[in-house]
Amino acid sequence: MRLPAHVRTAPFITRQFSRMPFLAALVAAAVAGSPAAAAERSLTAGDAARPTGVAPASDSAAKRLARPPLDELRRRTLDAVLGLPDVDASVAATLEKLWSDASAGSDPDVLERIARSASLVDDRAAEMVRLCAGPVDPWLVPDPWWLDDRDTPVWLRNNLRLYFGRYLAQRQMYDRALGVLAGLEPQDVADPASLLFYQGAAYHHQLRKSAGLRALDRLLDDVADCPPRFRNVAGLMREDLKKLKDDSLDHVSRRMDDIRRRLDFGNAGSRTRRIEDGIIESLDKIIEELEKQRQQQSGAGGGPAGQPMQDSRIAKQKGPGQTDRKDIGKKSDWGDLPPETRDQIRQQLGRDLPAHYYDLIQQYFNNQKPGAAK
């Protein structure tokens, strides 16, 4: 994909490569070994064992948040859909079948069921369900302005916002996900764990430490039925945010990664440019600190700090340039080889050389024959 001109000429792209060369290697190493990379890999690890250092939730902790029973979710959804004006009578039978299938499953996706229920009576919800069912280029994802429509029941609006926000977060569109999920509270939706997890994941990837820790703490400490896959990854993200230090090399490398993600989506707006400027400032601080350390180490070595090496010069020494001659004997039969060996050598020497060298090679061997003219 070729980026637009205003993206290719963004200040971060034109300035970041003018920095000290060794920073690239340091940043790459920090990205590969960062706890964030481990958390990212764990998103697809399923219900793995609890990671080291993540404390289990206390049994005595007040668990105020949990997903309502499936029968209650079914009743509230049917009341909201069938309470709309001009609903066809056949919709009730379709809804009953949809939720009876959900009841038969061990752990149904209640957000998917609510969205499909709304799609039976609202074409906009039906289009959203089709959108979330398959891959779509980020710049083609529409803005769901209609989710603020007051004519839509609050129960349906809130859960459709969570359904769409989950879709955006799973596709790394974190800014838009947070915009859609803004203002929602766990008690407003059918799945409090999903709301807090995807809010926490979006804040974590944007390195918004305070907001991320609030969401993850509520998920891990207050949700009674948090799925193991959410708990494991959320524990990693929480520990990662706690250890994150501003203007550290890890912090810089992950903001660079966020910039790459934004530019891949064609997002070069004001927030992206502010992050770019912040990265440049952090790099300047790191470079300045490294320069100070280098000067201190040079000073501790006894030499003047920052003193460059003197230029090399040719030695101005004079002499006759003579050496002792070595006596190698007076025998002249060192080149007298058997005829078969001479032919093999002549062929090998002439194999990879231009044709006009052949006469010279032939002449050389003729001169080595016994009795040849010297």
How would you describe this structure in keywords?
single chain; 374 residues; mainly alpha
Describe this structure in words.
With 374 residues, this protein is an all-alpha fold. The chain has a domain at 339-374. It contains 17 helices and no strands. The chain has helices at residues 5-8, 11-15, 22-33, 35-42, 70-82, 90-104, 110-119, 123-132, 154-170, 174-181, 192-205, 209-222, 228-243, 249-264, 270-300, 339-351, 358-367. It is elongated, with a radius of gyration of 37 Å. Mean pLDDT is 75; it is low at 1-62.
Summarize the structure.
Helix content is 58%, strand content 0%. The protein has helices spanning 5-8, 11-15, 22-33, 35-42, 70-82, 90-104, 110-119, 123-132, 154-170, 174-181, 192-205, 209-222, 228-243, 249-264, 270-300, 339-351, 358-367. The model is unreliable at 1-62 (pLDDT under 50).
Order of helices and strands: HHHHHHHHHHHHHHHHH
Please give the radius of gyration in angstroms: 37 Å
Q: What is the number of strand segments?
A: 0
- Contiguous helical run count: 17
Strand content: under 5%
Shape: elongated
Topology, pairings included?
Blueprint (H helix, E strand, L loop, with lengths): L4 H4 L2 H5 L6 H12 L1 H8 L27 H13 L7 H15 L5 H10 L3 H10 L21 H17 L3 H8 L10 H14 L3 H14 L5 H16 L5 H16 L5 H31 L38 H13 L6 H10 L7
